[in-house]
Amino acid sequence: MKKVLIIGGGGGGLILANHLDTNEYDVTVIDKSDLHFYQPWFLYIAFKGSKRKISRPIGELLKPGANFVKDEISTINLDERKVYGSRKGVYNYDYLVIATGTNPDPDSIPGLRQTYDEYGDYHTSVWSSQKLWSNVSKFKGGTVAIGQASPTCKCPPSLLEGAFLLEEHLRKVGLREKTRIVFFTPFPRAYPAEPMNRVVEPMVKERGIEVMPFFDVDTIDPQTKTITSLEGDSLKYDLPIIVPPCKGTKIKIIPETVQDEDRFIKADKKLMKITGYDDAFAVGDCNTLPTSKTGVTAHLEAMAVADIIQGKYSEFNGRINCPFDTAYGKATFVIADYNNPVAPYPPTRLKHMMKMTMARIYWMTLMGTADPIFDQFFKFTRPEKLNKKYATAD
Amino acid sequence: MDAVKIIDSRGSACPGPITDLAKAYRNSKVGDIMELWATDKGVKADAQAWATKTGNEILEVKEDPEKISIKIKINKR
Ligand SMILES: Cc1cc2nc3c(=O)[nH]c(=O)nc-3n(C[C@H](O)[C@H](O)[C@H](O)COP(=O)(O)OP(=O)(O)OC[C@H]3O[C@@H](n4cnc5c(N)ncnc54)[C@H](O)[C@@H]3O)c2cc1C
Prior knowledge:
The complex is a heterodimer. By secondary structure, chain A is of the alpha/beta class. In chain A, about 30% of the residues lie in helices and about 25% in strands. Chain A has 3 domains: about 1-100 and about 250-310, 3-Layer(bba) Sandwich (FAD/NAD(P)-binding domain), CATH 3.50.50.60; about 105-245, FAD/NAD(P)-binding domain (3-Layer(bba) Sandwich), CATH 3.50.50.60; about 320-390, no CATH class. In chain B, strand 1 (about 5-10), helix 1 (about 15-25) and strand 2 (about 35-40) form a beta-alpha-beta unit. Chain B has a single domain, classed as TusA-like domain (Translation Initiation Factor IF3), CATH 3.30.110.40. By secondary structure, chain B is α+β, with helices and mostly antiparallel strands. In chain B, about 30% of the residues lie in helices and about 30% in strands. Flavin-adenine dinucleotide binds next to helix 1, strand 2, helix 2, helix 7 and strand 21 of chain A.
């Protein structure tokens, strides 16, 4: 039996394992943690104080026949087909899939570590989101500086979703008039993809959220409560909500040329094969594909890799489908692929219901049981179709 | 002079080529020459706005059926 070794039991790793035939392949998932987390819910912990349980044991999310091993991988040698764990030793493989997600790096920006430990964020962990909620609940008014510290981040809509949900919260508790919300971003506008910016910018304006574009965090001074940007601007805050930069894997990979300067793994954008290798793939947030780092892309990449390993023709077309909560009960989706730009798809209550339903059926999607629903949805919302309908209506 | 650093952002619709440019800027130094490749049409206006804001220089913009390539010199970091 051919051995498929999957490193990382996040969305990408689990979906891949669950789409392999365990009668034909010896499938093992290795993760340093016993638990899988539903990360999109960090937002609702951080801005609504949600207490929903968002983790489940990885072993219970795998189909029968697939194995789970808890171990932290420290080194991968692609030339020798060997993977080294810090707890249980050496693993061999016929096919390797790296699906290790991203690593937050608050130490790469002066002053960020202290700010992050004190205030938390809405992106990194249950702990950091609870920390932020405790600070948001204590907040009495002043200036909130909210945004991503650097351009590399997962789930592009989630940054502005944070600002929208914060604004809604402050209005609800009667603090909106006493607060200035400044959303800073390294991009030229509130939402990086221009067609979607056209949809959300009126909401940003209407809700009085100030935008500081081209603001890439250089340093933070917790004493004077000031953030300065690489572009030379500065921003004073009372409450800082800063999402740390995302970096690639901490694993040492041989050869090191397969990683970029932020440690993301270089891979073919349609086949996810690690550059120069036919038996090793990088799936999801850990790779350098020119697409958003989201659960949906990890999911679609994983399904394509499962097909490729099992000898079926398949490729990833760059499809993104990021749910975007615009607060006050509405949401939209950011939809595009490698050949079609983002469609200016308007927010509705129905799409908000879909986002919330997704949060409920998430565990099913990992098992593959929701695939037929997704297939239909993806067909119905092809970006070329949406662009025809909405882009021309502008 | 160092080799031109290619930033291949072809196919990226969201967050888009400007993400890759901003990311490369963070890891760059004064004197570097970068060439951004993109298919997203908005890249020309965005790269220009970015260069104006950051005080860097667009040396050349080329367009062919495959891609738009923008050559940028880093003057400020
Ligand atoms: C606030 C927020 C909102 C989001 N909203 C959405 C959304 O609405 N829709 C959407 O599609 N996506 C969303 N995302 C993005 C989505 O959560 C991620 O893109 C997705 O989880 C990526 O899956 P992955 O498998 O690549 O990585 P992950 O799910 O991060 O999994 C990586 C796994 O690898 C393990 N690992 C790492 N290093 C090692 C090692 N050395 N050894 C062993 N194991 C290791 C980790 O423990 C982890 O379990 C959101 C993210 C955030 C933070």
